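#structure-requests
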Amino acid sequence: MNQDYGQEDGPGEEAEATRRDAGETESSRASRGWWDRNADEYQTEHGAFLGDDRFVWGPEGLDEADAGLLGPAGSLKGLDVLEIGAGAAQCSRWLAAQGARPVALDLSHRQLQHALRIGGDVPLVEADAGALPFRDGSFDLACSAYGAVPFVADPVRVFREVHRVLRPGGRWVFSVTHPIRWAFPDEPGPEGLSVAASYFDRTPYVEQDEQGRAVYVEHHRTIGDRVRDVVAGGFRLLDLVEPEWPEWNSQEWGGWSPLRGNLIPGTAIFVCERVDR
């Protein structure tokens, strides 16, 4: 789910937006279904911004080529890299162009079909981030740009799986919606500048059908929660990056916009390193 920047549209005619508990199984089923149904529209609307072989961390447009959060581009050559929530594998293609050996994993079959449509030699794997189908110590690096982490009920389970498949000292870098945004309405204009909910309310955002079945789920964690999850997953936090909105970026993307981006952070990027006890 490459750069799955949260739910950007309102609920459909048959969906009701609410806040309620949603466990691992329900969240996973909802994410798979939502992205299979919406992958075409997502790639049509955002494909030009994402590019076919660009590694961008969020709606602000922070490029890995400039940020170097995985390490200097020249150091990626020959490394085995796992992209989790890869969507159409745009980030993985950029990694391959640097000489890395990426594997693009996603829960959504339809997203991976778009990866096939775009083309390239990146291996594609359809699987859940909480049960990675790889041997221990298979990768040097792991990354996820808005993929998987915001949508899982148990992020520590995902982090422990990432820890397992990384080699000693491996780096794990992931971006998510900045937790502070959960206190504000998901609106790009002035109406989205006033606090409307408690930052400390961890109740998931759920869209459900007429039978009460979740069709979209997103989970909220505070900054402190995320840090504790990283540590519980077996990692050391090296950096927490909050990209500022650049002058060149005039687009609105759901609740992300130049207006809001110049006032509050929209993305949080966690740069982590595997700890070997």
